[in-house]
């Protein structure tokens, strides 16, 4: 045993020596990019405009100690080409705010200027709301969470929408009534429940080897396979995700679906952002640049239009 | 279809016209004198008529001459063997079997005839690698590797450091048809590509074709690696083996019935797991972790009569990684076992029949399978009540082929060598299935997800004719047709092939070729490392068949000292090649794989220079490639064309073996290549609310890593013992400890700035091995 121990020390030393010898810092001649501005403004129709302005830095000029966001920029909002006004910086929220409310069908532009940076601008149009309806709910089974091959009681919920005959992009969210009415204390919470959807239009954002194929949070899809026609989607959820919440006697809410009609830019931004996160830290994944619709800069400006439907019985 | 009619006229009418003449046919088999092993590619020349041919895979040859000669002189030669000249009466058909004897390796060879040399063949972009040269070259960890020897040829790039992957003339690793005794091998790698599955002791010949593909080959765009196993010595029992730092191997061959049948069996296994087990056990409190791979090759052949011969051969190899842990929590006794296993199995049966001296047939049936299997099992036993529970999860994927093929060699006259054949392959693809099994705690379930297999049927037919138009001009013209049925769709492709050779003088010829190649399967693979998780998938509506058009032209020259020189230029265009979309990862490709990849085009062009000396005290080769390889995908890099990851502007390789004395042999190689093209981060910004930086990447593959270069040496000390021959081989890989880049990553420093780190794999690695032969 003693001999084995001394062998193992030698082996460990060799391994350490090997690892150290196999990594070295190198000088890489990276194409220089000038510091630029970033703009993030994603609002829904009916909400006031809120924007965050930051900066992009060349990788070799970057330092964590540098301030990443800019608080003294001039941020101006336009509606259909006409000046709405300047957006004011709110230090507590660290956002630029406008009193204007996003209206459907209007074209908005945000221009950002800051000393030492090239000006940037983004443009967005609020799409119309697409109504969503609950078609039916049936008893079914769903694979138990965390693998194990077991099954548990669940519900198959079918929802439907009528797609306008132009290219459309959507985001769907499923919430349990419990999350919405108790956990977050407001009508639409931010936590999503697991929903299993086996539909060719739905793009799996993150896939797992456990066979559950759960989608949590935002479910992105476009109308490439059903453009201009009616589309129904069936999702399977666990029994526990549709526990009723009694709103008033005789009226219970079981779950909530939110269909958000988003712009192509918002869709591409979200998808590429998810992909970049999935690839992050994996040296063998193909690198991805996050989509931007900001001219001369990075980030996203989008306006989306939600439609919420409650599953009631 | 009219564009192919000239091919049919040439292939069908011309041979019939030649039937009007009265000819004599000389046919037979060429074999090695001592072992009786048939020699493929031996050259048979009738110098007076300037007519020649080569023996086929089974050593058969046939040559037809005009009946105008009273006496025929025929010269038979094969690299590494003493040529033989036969003289006989030329008045009737005659069967002559020839046995060639190996020459002494130390003898310097002076070429007395140029008629059997490189420049006389119609085939271009093809290299025969003598197995002896492969075995003499310096080897990584002392383990001779055929694929790494192939990487020393011009126009062929190795993938990443240490990998046995091949990137041929700008093609991907999926575009190589790797044949072992005519059977496709789908994953030719062990240990993440650091070793190949081919045990050199079991191999008889290796031929690499990079362009000018004859019509008999099909199914891949970029190369054919045709590897044949030894048949076995028909006269006496032989053995050879080696004991190295990584693996040991043993090969036995001998007669079953002297002169008529023989066998060859060869095995190899790594044993790091066995040697390290005591150390690991003591360090890991009795738990076990290990890895090994093994290969088994076997072949038997029977001569049924003067005109019939049957062969059975097979290969079976696996990689296995395993770990076993046991722990006792006081409340329960738990065990966890994990196993990763992947490997190939092939089996082939062949029946040769000589119908007439001019017509030779071969029936082949084969099976090929690649499978990847990962399994994790947890068992628990409660201390209090002895209740047991079990949880098991298994993921598996693979591909399986069952095929039948019939090939005919027809030599109707002195100016034609026709090869034709038809084959049927039933493919079964398993792009990934997950099985879970649970028992205990009142639960019991056994479920499988995603186990849907895809079946596809493939039919291939080809015809080619090697036509001697004049004494200086030869052409090989042919056509390959493939029909592919998958998911209820029928796809097909007619692929024309043309090669020409013009003999400028006895030493020098000019060659040109044009080929179209179609490929009906795709490999979902990471572009930098070959992993067992790589998935073969068939063409679909979203992923159409790959097509390549390749034109090449060059010169071939053999100096009187035996040095062969070839210089070639090529242009290759590829349609429907695939790449992972931005952000997609090779991990878990089985799910939704069609949506993870994107389809585009590729092109590669450049020039190659190759020198090879196959015989004498000094043997070796040198190759230089100047090339450009690009890809274009609408979904990638903003639709702009970008360099392929293995676009290598300059690629230089040199390797040599020098027999200092009869007992000491020195070998060395040196390789240099332009750095791989990669995509690097050039900037950062933060998305509000996340606290993380989002990376801005530069142009796809817009940055070059440092050039790759490495030198290896080895020295072999041989000695003839009383009953056997032994050799000690001492080798050093990466002799000057070059830290070649494997990948680049970024790291945040203590001061918050970012720096680039280069990770390298292999520093200087010495090795020693012991070989024996009896």
Gross morphology of chain B is globular
Total of helices of chain B: 5
How would you state the average pLDDT of chain A, rounded? 81
General shape of chain A: globular
Radius of gyration of chain B: 28 Å
Biggest sheet descriptor of chain A: 13 strands, mixed
Strand proportion of chain B, as a percent range, falls in: over 45%
Give the distance, in angstroms, between the N- and C-terminal Cα atoms of chain A: 70 Å
Give helix % range of chain A: 10-25%
Which series of helices and strands of chain A comes N to C? HEEEEEEEEEEEHEEEEEEHEE
Cα end-to-end separation of chain B = 58 Å
Number of strands of chain B: 50
Give the beta-strand count of chain A: 19
Largest interface comes to: A-B, 69 and 75 residues
Please give the share of residues in helix of chain B: under 10%
Stretches of chain B where pLDDT falls below 50 for ≥5 residues? 13-20, 108-115, 586-590
Range of strand content of chain A: over 45%
- Structural class by secondary-structure content of chain A: mainly beta
Rg of chain A over CA atoms, rounded to whole Å, is 25 Å
DSSP helix count of chain A? 3
Helix and strand topology:
The complex is a heterodimer of chains A (313) and B (774).
Chain A: H1 2-21, E1 23-26, E2 36-44, E3 48-58, E4 74-79, E5 82-90, E6 95-101, E7 107-113, E8 120-125, E9 132-143, E10 151-162, E11 169-176, H2 177-183, E12 195-197, E13 214-215, E14 219-222, E15 230-238, E16 245-248, E17 251-262, H3 264-279, E18 294-295, E19 298-312
Parallel strand pairs in A: 2-19
Antiparallel strand pairs in A: 2-3, 3-6, 4-5, 4-7, 5-6, 7-8, 8-18, 9-10, 10-15, 11-14, 11-17, 12-13, 12-15, 16-17, 17-19
Chain B: H1 5-17, E1 23-32, E2 43-46, E3 51-54, E4 60-66, E5 71-77, E6 81-82, E7 84-89, E8 94-95, E9 98-102, E10 126-129, H2 131-136, H3 146-150, E11 156-158, E12 166-168, E13 176-180, E14 183-184, E15 189-190, E16 195-196, E17 203-209, E18 223-229, E19 238-243, E20 247-257, E21 261-270, H4 272-283, E22 288-305, E23 308-328, E24 332-356, E25 359-382, E26 388-413, E27 416-440, E28 443-449, E29 454-468, E30 473-486, E31 489-503, E32 508-519, E33 521-524, E34 535-538, E35 546-558, E36 563-580, H5 593-596, E37 597-613, E38 618-632, E39 642-643, E40 650-659, E41 664-673, E42 677-678, E43 681-686, E44 693-697, E45 703-704, E46 708-720, E47 725-733, E48 743-748, E49 754-759, E50 765-773
Parallel strand pairs in B: 1-8, 1-9, 13-18
Antiparallel strand pairs in B: 1-4, 2-3, 2-5, 5-7, 6-9, 10-17, 11-12, 13-14, 15-16, 17-18, 19-20, 19-50, 20-21, 21-22, 22-23, 23-24, 24-25, 25-26, 26-27, 27-28, 27-29, 29-30, 30-31, 31-32, 32-35, 33-34, 35-36, 36-37, 37-38, 38-39, 38-40, 40-41, 41-46, 42-45, 43-44, 46-47, 47-50, 48-49
């Amino acid at each position: 045993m003693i001999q084995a121990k001394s062998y193992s020390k030698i082996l460990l030393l060799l391994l350490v020596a090997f690892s150290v010898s196999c990594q070295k810092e190198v000088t890489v001649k990276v194409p220089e990019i000038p510091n630029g501005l970033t703009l993030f403004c994603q609002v829904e129709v009916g909400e006031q405009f809120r924007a965050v302005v930051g900066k992009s830095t060349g990788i070799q000029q970057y330092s964590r100690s540098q301030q990443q966001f800019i608080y003294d920029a001039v941020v101006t909002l336009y509606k259909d080409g006409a000046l709405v006004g300047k957006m004011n910086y709110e230090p507590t929220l660290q956002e630029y705010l406008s009193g204007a409310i996003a209206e459907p069908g209007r074209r908005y532009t945000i221009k950002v200027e800051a000393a030492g940076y090239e000006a940037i601008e983004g443009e967005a149009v609020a799409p119309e709301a697409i109504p969503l309806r609950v078609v039916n709910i049936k008893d079914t089974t769903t694979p138990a969470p965390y693998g194990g091959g077991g099954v548990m009681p669940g519900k198959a919920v079918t929802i439907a929408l009528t797609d306008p005959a132009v290219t459309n992009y959507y985001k769907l969210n499923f919430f349990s009534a419990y999350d919405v009415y108790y956990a977050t204390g407001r009508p639409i919470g931010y936590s999503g429940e697991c929903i299993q959807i086996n539909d060719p239009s739905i793009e799996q954002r993150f896939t797992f080897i456990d066979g559950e194929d759960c989608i949590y949070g935002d479910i992105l899809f476009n109308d490439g396979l059903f453009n201009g026609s009616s589309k129904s989607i069936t999702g399977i959820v666990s029994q526990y995700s549709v526990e009723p919440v009694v709103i008033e006697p005789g009226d219970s809410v079981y779950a909530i679906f939110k269909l958000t009609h988003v712009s192509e830019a918002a869709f591409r931004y979200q998808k590429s952002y998810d992909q970049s996160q999935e690839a992050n830290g994996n040296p063998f994944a193909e690198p991805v640049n996050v989509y931007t619709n900001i001219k001369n800069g990075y980030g996203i400006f989008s306006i989306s239009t939600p439609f919420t439907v409650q599953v009631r019985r | 279809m009219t564009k192919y009619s000239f091919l049919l006229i040439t292939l069908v009418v011309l041979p019939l016209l030649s039937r009007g003449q009265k000819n004599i046919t000389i046919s037979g088999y060429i074999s090695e004198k001592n072992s009786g092993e048939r020699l493929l590619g031996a050259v048979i020349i009738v110098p007076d008529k300037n007519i020649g041919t080569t023996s086929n895979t089974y050593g058969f040859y046939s040559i037809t001459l005009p009946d105008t000669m009273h006496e025929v002189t025929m010269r038979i030669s094969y690299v590494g063997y003493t040529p033989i000249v036969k003289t006989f009466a030329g008045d009737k058909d005659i069967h002559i079997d020839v046995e060639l004897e190996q020459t002494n390796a130390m003898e310097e060879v002076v070429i007395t005839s140029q008629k059997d040399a490189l420049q006389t063949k119609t085939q271009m972009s093809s290299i025969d690698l003598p197995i002896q040269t492969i075995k003499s070259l310096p080897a990584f960890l002392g383990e001779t590797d055929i694929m790494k020897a192939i990487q020393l040829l011009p126009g062929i790039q190795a993938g990443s450091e240490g990998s046995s992957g091949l990137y041929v003339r700008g093609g991907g690793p999926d575009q190589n048809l790797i044949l072992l005794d005519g059977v496709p091998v789908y994953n030719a790698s062990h240990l993440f590509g650091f070793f190949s599955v081919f045990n050199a002791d079991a191999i008889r010949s290796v031929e690499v074709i990079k362009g000018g593909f004859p019509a008999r080959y099909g199914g891949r765009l970029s190369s054919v690696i045709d590897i044949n196993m030894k048949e076995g010595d028909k006269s006496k029992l032989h053995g050879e083996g080696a004991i190295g730092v990584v693996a040991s191997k043993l090969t036995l061959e001998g007669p079953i019935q002297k002169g008529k049948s023989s066998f060859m069996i060869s095995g190899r296994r790594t044993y790091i797991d066995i040697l390290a087990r005591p150390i690991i056990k003591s360090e890991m409190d009795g738990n076990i972790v290990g890895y090994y791979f093994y290969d088994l090759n076997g072949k038997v052949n029977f001569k049924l009569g003067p005109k019939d011969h049957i062969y059975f051969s097979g290969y079976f190899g696996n990689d296995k990684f395993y770990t076993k842990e046991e722990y006792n929590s006081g409340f329960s006794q738990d065990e966890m076992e994990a196993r990763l296993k992947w490997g190939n199995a092939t089996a082939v049966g062949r029946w040769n029949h000589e119908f007439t001296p001019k017509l030779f047939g071969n029936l082949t049936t084969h099976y090929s399978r690649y499978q990847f299997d990962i399994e994790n099992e947890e068992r628990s036993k409660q201390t209090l009540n002895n209740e047991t529970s079990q949880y098991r999860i298994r993921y598996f994927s693979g591909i399986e082929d069952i095929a039948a093929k019939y090939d005919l060699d027809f030599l109707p006259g002195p100016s034609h060598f026709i090869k034709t054949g038809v084959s049927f392959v039933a493919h079964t693809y398993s792009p990934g299935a997950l099985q879970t099994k649970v028992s205990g705690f009142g639960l019991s379930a056994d479920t499988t997800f995603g186990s849907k297999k895809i079946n596809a049927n493939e039919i291939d037919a080809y015809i080619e004719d090697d036509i001697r138009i004049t004494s200086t001009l030869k052409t090989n013209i042919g056509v390959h047709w493939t029909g592919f049925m998958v998911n209820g769709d029928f796809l097909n492709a007619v692929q024309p092939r043309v090669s020409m050779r013009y003999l400028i003088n006895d030493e020098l010829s000019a060659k040109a070729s044009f080929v179209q190649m179609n490929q009906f399967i795709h490999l979902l693979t990471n572009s930098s490392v070959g992993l067992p998780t790589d998935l073969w998938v068939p063409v679909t509506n979203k992923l159409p068949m790959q097509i390549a058009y390749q034109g090449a032209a060059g010169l071939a020259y053999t100096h009187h000292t035996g040095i062969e020189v070839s210089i070639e230029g090529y242009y290759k265009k590829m349609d429907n090649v695939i790449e992972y979309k931005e952000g997609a990862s090779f991990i878990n490709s089985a799910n939704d794989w069609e949506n993870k990849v994107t389809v585009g085009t590729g092109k590669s062009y450049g020039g190659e220079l190759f020198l090879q000396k196959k015989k004498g005290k000094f043997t070796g080769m040198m190759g230089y490639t100047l090339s450009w390889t690009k890809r274009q995908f609408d979904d990638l890099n903003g639709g702009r064309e970008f360099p392929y990851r293995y676009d290598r502007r300059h690629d230089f390789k040199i390797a040599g073996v020098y027999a200092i004395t009869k007992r000491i042999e020195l070998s060395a190689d040196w390789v240099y290549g332009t750095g791989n093209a990669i995509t690097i981060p050039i900037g950062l910004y933060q998305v509000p609310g996340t606290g993380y930086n989002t990376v801005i990447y530069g142009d796809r593959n817009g940055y070059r890593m440092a050039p790759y270069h490495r030198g290896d040496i080895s020295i072999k000390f041989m000695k003839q013992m009383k009953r056997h021959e032994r050799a000690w081989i001492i080798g050093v890989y990466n002799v000057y400890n070059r830290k070649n880049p494997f990948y680049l990553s970024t790291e945040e420093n203590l001061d918050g700035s970012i720096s680039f780190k280069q990770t390298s794999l292999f520093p200087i690695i010495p090795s020693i091995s012991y070989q024996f032969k009896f």
